[in-house]
Hints:
Oligomer: single chain
Amino acid sequence: MRLCVCLVLLSFILCTSAERPLLVRGGKFVRDAVGGAWDMLRAYHDMHEANYKGADKYFHARGNYDAAQRGPGGAWAAKVISDAREKWQSDVSGRGAEDTRADQEANEWGRSGGDPNRYRPAGLPRKY
């Protein structure tokens, strides 16, 4: 919900200018951000569907990679979602700083255009 509110506010801020190119860029940023959020959700769904031991980092990298490929809006959405998830995970689940650090490394690797297969565990079905 917060992401949706942020996207709406961001679109208003970016689109208030009467200058057409800024309006177009703002609209593209918002479309990319929404698509990036969808990419992150798809990776999360696939991770749960696969239920494959050791594949967590792969799905982190893949979701961030797919989102960032959409452009600056997708990369922004991936960073916001990844940071929020890791903050929640470290505060609530108690999985520890080491796991959070490793997840964030995979997130950044994917967002920066690194091949997510670096984190792909052996035996994970090709479907993913």
